[in-house]
Amino acid sequence: METKDTLYIGGEWVAPATTGTIDVISPTTEELIARVPEASEGDVDRAVEAARVALGGPFPQLAPAERAEYLTKLSQAIQARAPEFAETITSEMGSPSSWALMGQVLSSTMVFDGWVELARTFPFEELRQGALGPVIVRKEPVGVSAGIIPWNVPLFIVALKLGAALVAGAPMILKPSPETPLDAYLLGEVLDEIGLPKGMVSILPAGREIGEYIVRHPGVDKVGFTGSTAAGRKVGAICGEMLKRCTLELGGKSAAIVLEDADLASAVPLLMPNALMNNGEACVAQTRILAPRARYDEVVDAVADAVKATTVGDPADPSVAVGPLVAERQRERVLGYIDKGRSEGAKLAVGGGRPAGLDRGWFVEPTLFVDVENRMTIAQEEIFGPVLAVLPYDDEADAVRIANDSDYGLSGSVWTQDVERGIDVARRVRTGTYGVNQFGTIDLRNPFGGFKASGVGRELGPEGLSAYLETKSIVLPADYQPPA
After folding, report:
1. DSSP of 325-348, one letter per residue?
2. Do 219 and 128 share a structural domain?
3. Can you tell me the mean pLDDT for 6-19?
4. Which residue, 359, 285, 374, 365, is CA-closest to 28?
5. pLDDT for 114
6. What is the mean pLDDT of residues 400-408?
7. Are residues 166 and 48 in the same domain?
8. Would you say residue 440 has pLDDT above 70?
9. Is there a contact between 387 and 334 (Cβ–Cβ < 8 Å)?
10. What is the pLDDT of residues 268-322, one digit of tens each?
C-alpha cells in the first residue's frame, strides 16, 4: 500500500494542517491501495495566501509566450512518465489501460501543447480606434483561480483548466477528487521538475466540503468546475452570490443520430467505443442512439453485437475495453437505473447485471436497452456507466426533436453518407460539440462546453483562455501616437 504524508501547497511539499486521511480503494479488487492526507480549511487558507503572493509576483508579468514555456516543459515531463500516469489512473479509478494512455494522459499533453500554441497568437493587448480616440484593450489575469477536478478523467480536466490559468498568469488551486488523488501527486512531482515559480499551483485532495470552502473563499476570484449538474448548480449559485467568475462543465445525455442512409458497417465500429468510453463514465458519451423506424431492427442488431463483443474485466489487461466503475456507490447507482429502465417498460437486449466470473470489483455488464421512449428515465438522466439505449424516430425532423428533448446539450453525433445533410442536422441540434460521421466530443484546439444544464462557459480555444482573463480598456488622448 502506498502512503503519502505531505500536500503540495504553493509549490512546496508540506505537512498537512490536520491528521485527516483519504483511503484509496481499488475498484477492481476492492482492496485498500493507498492512503493520502485529506486537505482541510487550514491547507486551503495557506494555498490561497501563497497564490495571492504569486499573483503579485513575477510570473504574471512574464510575456505570454514565456509563461507558456512552462507548459511545454510540463507536457514533456508528463510524456516522459506517461505509462506511470496511465497505470496510476487505471489503478485508482478503473479506466481501461487500452484507453488510459491516450485518453487519460497523452490527450492531456496535447491540451497543454495547444495552450502553448494559443499563447503565441492570442491578442493579450491591442490598440483599437475608439469613439473619441485610440483605446488599448488589454487582457489581464482573472486573479486566483480554483480548479475542481472530477474522478473520471482527472489529468485531462486538469489540463483544460491549469493550462488556461498559467497562460493567463492566474495562480490555480487544484482540488482533485478523493477517488483519484494519486495521479495528482505525480502531477505535483512534475511541477517540481519544471521549476514553476512558487505559489502558482497548489494541489489539495479533499471531498465536497473542502471544495465548497474553496469556492466560497474570498481570496479565490475564479472557479473552474467539472462534475455533476446538481453540484454545478450549487457552485454556480455560490459564485453568483459572491460575483465570482465561473466555468461549469457538467453532465450530458448525448444523442447519436443514425440517418436512413448510414453505412452501419462503418458507423457502428466508430460509434461504439465512444458510447462506452472509459467504462461509460464520460460526460460526452453517446448513450442515446437514435435509429430510423425502417431500419430500427438492423441498427439494434448491429449495436447489440458490438455490445456483446465488448470485453469486460481487469482494466490493467490491454485486451479489456470496459473495467469496473469507480466506486461501489456508482455501481449501485447504475444498477438502480437498469432496474428503473425495466420497470418503465424498456427491454433489455444485452447485459443488465454483474459480468460472469467477476465476483470482486465494482463491475456492471455493458448493457443495451431497446424499445426505449425518450420520456423514460434511462433516456433523460445521465447514468454514467456502460448503459446504452436505442430509440426509434419517424423522420429527420423527429430525430432532431428527440435529440433536443433533453435537459442536457453537451455532445452528439450524426451518421450519414451525405456530409452536407449531416452538417444541416448538426446545426439544428442544441448542443455544445457535435460530430459528423465521427464521435462528437472535444477538438483540442476549439471551445468545449454545453448548452442548457450541461454547463456555463467554455474550455479550450480562445474562449477557454478568455475565461481566465479580465478585460481592461485604457482610453488614450485623441492625438496619441504609439512609439515606433
Report:
1. -SSHHHHHHHHHHHHHHHHTT-EE
2. yes
3. 98
4. 359
5. 98
6. 98
7. yes
8. no
9. yes
10. 999 998 899 999 999 999 999 999 999 999 999 999 999 999 999 999 999 999 9
Task: Give the pLDDT mean for 471-476.
Answer: 98
Provide the edge-to-edge strand list for the sheet that holds 469-475. Answer: 125-129, 134-141, 469-475
User: Of the ranges 82-86, 136-140, 373-377, 440-444, which one carries the lowest mean pLDDT score?
Assistant: 440-444
Which residue range(s) make up the domain with 217?
Answer: 2-250+454-473
Q: Which residues are catalytic?
A: 249, 283
* Bridge partners, 25 (sequence order): 32
Residue 449, in any domain of the structure: no
Residues 189, 61 within the same domain: yes
- Give the β-pairing of 201-203 and 255-258: unpaired
For residue 359, CA distances in Å to 25, 93, 354, 455 come to 16, 18, 8, 38
Strand, helix or coil for residue 85: helix
pTM to 2 decimals?
0.97
Q: 429, 434, 431, 435: which is closest to 455 by C-alpha?
A: 431
The DSSP code for 322 is B
pLDDT tens per residue, range 58-69: 999 999 999 999
For residue 224, give every residue at least 6 positions away whose Cβ sits within 8 Å of its Cβ, in sequence order, or none: 145, 146, 147, 148, 160, 161, 164, 165, 246, 247, 249, 459, 467, 468
**How far is the C-alpha of 478 from the C-alpha of 480, rounded, in Å?**
6
Q: Are the beta carbons of 256 and 290 closer than 8 angstroms?
A: yes
**CA–CA distance, 98 with 332 (Å, rounded to integer):** 25
Residue 35 clears pLDDT 80, i.e. is over it: yes
CATH number at residue 166: 3.40.605.10
Place of cell 467539472: 226
**Distance between CA atoms of residues 13 and 308, nearest Å:** 47
∠ CA 442-446-448, rounded to 5°: 50
